[in-house]
Automatic annotation (TrEMBL):
It is found in: Periplasm. Gene3D superfamilies: Ribonuclease Z/Hydroxyacylglutathione hydrolase-like. The chain crosses the membrane at residues 12-34. Residues 154-234 form the Metallo-beta-lactamase domain. This is Metallo-beta-lactamase family protein. Heterodimer of a large and a small subunit. Signal peptide: none annotated. InterPro entries: Metallo-B-lactamas, Metallo-beta-lactamase_dom, RibonucZ/Hydroxyglut_hydro, TAT_signal, TAT_signal_bac_arc. Keywords: Iron, Iron-sulfur, Membrane, Metal-binding, Transmembrane, Transmembrane helix. The keyword Transmembrane helix applies. GO terms for molecular function: iron-sulfur cluster binding; metal ion binding; transferase activity. It comes from Maridesulfovibrio salexigens (strain ATCC 14822 / DSM 2638 / NCIMB 8403 / VKM B-1763).
Length: 389
């Protein structure tokens, strides 16, 4: 045997042996990780149990959960532009299109084409952007109305997110009477969960009816996002969430999560409620922090009635593009361990996930599949869910 062949044989043997050892170790660790002994070695959660009060009930109206209408167009545009790490403001999507094509967009070019029309003439602004943007009919948006009743009966109304398409969101606001509520200043604040297109870019639709509404943003917003707030004609009190927990009213708190998100977005905020006599309700926009991290944080940091998770609503970000990966099954199983009594999911939870929840016997509140929502397995556009009512 030649020296060259001997060296090759040695390399193959060492490589094969190492691979076998690593594979065996991984297999062993995998088996061990599911045993009680493994969990006994983990540090016990030190609970802080911050008392943020209690409320009587929470009601959510889904204004729009349909963030976009065609998955292939959305994914195709992102892929063509360079992938998930590409800055969202360069994708050449409305309202920041400049007519130059994929990956050639810019915040400055896009906003300059419509800035003088915001927020008063959204119809004209969107028509301009339709001519400059990729797949201009694909945008929809995510937004919901949250009504909270205090223990003394006082009612409060809030918006979580403001969608994407000026056209779609304006129609959706009118369908649910949000336009009138904003005009009459019945809605006390707008919470933007994160900077993504489908939750934030429809901001002028809210400001068209109330440009002084208190506005809450995560402190991870980029320069473009903060400039957009100004360019949309906002004149109100901008509140930057820079603490893990921000109390809003008794029984309601804003939770801040620092997490990198696709298309150069950073951070998400979600909401928590302590419903008297029932327990904790969690509401999210997309839940990019992950449903388990969301639940773990609430468990470790909040005090709530009966020490029980009662309900959840929103996007849970498990199969947003209607794909399925075996790891998602673990998330479905893990969610069941929290013992939620009412689950209202939609948006980036995905149809497949909702079906998995139902098949697992979870208490999913189903919808009506109206107004272009695609399935009755989750809460669609115009549907409502009550907690404690």
């Amino acid at each position: 045997m030649s020296n060259e062949k001997k060296n090759i044989s040695r390399r193959d043997f060492v490589k094969g042996a190492a691979t076998g050892l690593v594979a065996g170790a991984i297999a062993g660790m995998g088996m061990y990780s599911y045993t009680p002994m493994a969990y006994d070695r983990l540090p016990k959660t030190q609970r802080k149990l911050n008392d943020f009060g209690a409320c009587r009930s929470v009601r959510v109206t889904n204004i729009s959960e349909t963030s976009w209408f065609n998955n292939s167009h959305l994914i195709g545009d992102i892929h063509e532009a360079g992938g998930l790490l590409v800055n969202q403001y360069t994708l050449n999507w409305a309202p920041f299109g400049n007519g130059k094509g994929s990956a050639q967009g810019s915040y400055k070019d896009g906003i300059n084409s419509i800035k003088d029309l915001l927020p008063h003439d959204l119809e004209k602004a969107w028509e301009i952007q339709k001519k400059l943007s990729l797949h201009p009919d694909n945008p929809g948006g995510y937004s919901c109305l949250i009504e909270v009743e205090e223990l003394d009966g006082t009612m409060h109304k809030y918006l979580l997110d403001t969608g994407w398409s000026y056209e779609w969101m304006n129609d959706s606001f009118k369908r649910e009477g949000i336009d009138k509520m904003l005009k009459e200043q019945q809605i006390e604040a707008l919470f933007i969960s994160h900077e993504h297109w489908d939750h934030f870019w429809g901001l002028p639709v809210t400001l068209k009816y109330d440009n002084r509404i208190p506005l809450y943003l995560h402190d991870g917003f980029y320069e473009e996002g903060l400039q957009y707030v100004k360019d949309c004609g906002y004149k109100g009190d901008l509140k930057i969430a820079d603490k893990p927990i921000t109390p809003i009213i008794p029984g309601m708190a804003l939770l801040k999560f620092d997490v990198p998100i696709i298309n150069r977005v950073f951070g998400e905020t979600s909401l928590a409620f302590n419903v008297k006599g029932h327990g904790l309700v969690l509401i999210s926009g997309c839940c990019h922090q992950g449903i388990l991290k969301f639940a773990d944080f609430a468990y470790a940091n909040l005090k709530y009635d009966n020490d029980k998770f009662y309900g959840i609503y929103g996007g849970l970000h498990i199969s947003p593009f209607e794909d399925w990966d075996p790891k998602y099954d673990d998330l479905v199983i893990s969610l069941g361990e929290w013992g939620f009594e009412r689950i209202g999911c939609n948006h980036c939870t995905g149809h497949l996930t909702a079906k998995k929840f139902i098949e697992a016997g979870y208490p999913v509140v189903r919808g009506t599949a109206r107004f272009r929502s695609a399935s009755k397995d989750y809460l669609g556009n115009g549907d409502k869910i009550n907690f404690g009512c």
